[in-house]
């Protein structure tokens, strides 16, 4: 395996762990707030979890690319 595929595999494992953590946290909040909110809070939290996940993933990818250039 090349260095790039090793870094991609590490990034994939870390991103999966982060996604599991964030979704578990989000579901706990939805369970706690499940009163007369009609699913709006759940949708907002899902969107925010996906946005954070994508930002962390893109940031890690950019950082590894910058390390490769140096």
SSE layout and pairing:
Blueprint: H1 3-32, H2 40-69
What gross morphology would you assign? elongated
The number of distinct helices, counting runs of at least 4 residues, comes to 2
- The SSE string, one letter per element, is HH
Structural class based on helices, strands and sheet pairing: mainly alpha
> Low-confidence runs (pLDDT<50, min 5 residues)?
none
Summarize the structure.
This protein has 70 residues and is mostly helical. Helices cover 86% and strands 0% of the residues. Helix 1 packs antiparallel against helix 2.
Main features:
mainly alpha; transmembrane; single chain; transmembrane helix; elongated; membrane; 2 helices; 70 residues
Report on the architecture of this protein.
Helix 1 runs antiparallel to helix 2. It contains 2 helices and no strands. It has one domain. Helices cover 86% and strands 0% of the residues. By secondary structure, it is mainly α. Keywords: Membrane, Transmembrane, Transmembrane helix.
